Amino acid sequence: MNCPYCGYDDSKVIDSRDVNDGIRRRRQCLSCEARFTTYERLQPASLFVIKKDRRREEFDRDKLLTGVRRACEKRPLPEDAVERLIDEVEAELYRLGGTEVASATIGDMVMDRLKGLDHIAYIRFASVYRDFADITMLKEEVDTLAGRAGVPSADQLPLIPPEELGVAATNPRQVR
Ligand SMILES: [Zn+2]
């Protein structure tokens, strides 16, 4: 592994730890002393994804990454959140140990994690991923999430004050 800064071909390992079924190594270039990180991962046996129309194709991490990135576009997520999500899904897939997996299983794994990460990204991913037959279910899901986010009931102050929403205060408690 050449140094990404000066191209020198030798480095020493200054730290090494297990991450997501791989090994992360912190290295220091023996020439310019710059530090960089490498990941070592076992190349698993091929995993095939069975699509809804029964077509079979090799699991493609980059393709999944692109799909999830698209769903997370412009969402306030940490820079490496999507990458980590994909790492987890990939690790889980290989832990299952089979050589084939239904695309629906992968979709569910992604959705489970997106749901805990960002509701908008979750809904975007689900709406692209799910069939039309599932749309009613998705709508119920959206309603549940919206409800949990706090639609103010009569005896509760709204989460966001009306003046911030640009509406005139109509709540009697606030005009007093
Ligand atoms: Zn260097």
Q: Using only CA atoms, what is the Rg? A: 23 Å
Question: What's the assembly state of these chains?
Answer: single chain
Q: Which class do the helix and strand fractions yield?
A: alpha+beta
Shape: globular
Spans of 5+ residues with little confidence (pLDDT < 50)? 151-158, 164-176
Bound molecules: zinc ion
Binned strand content: 15-25%
The number of distinct β-strands equals 6
Distance between the termini: 69 Å
Q: Tell me about the largest β-sheet.
A: 3 strands, antiparallel
Total number of helices? 6
- Helicity, as a percent range: 40-55%
User: SSE string, helix = H, strand = E?
Assistant: EEEEEHHEHHHH
Mean pLDDT: 80
Strand order, largest beta sheet: 1-2-3
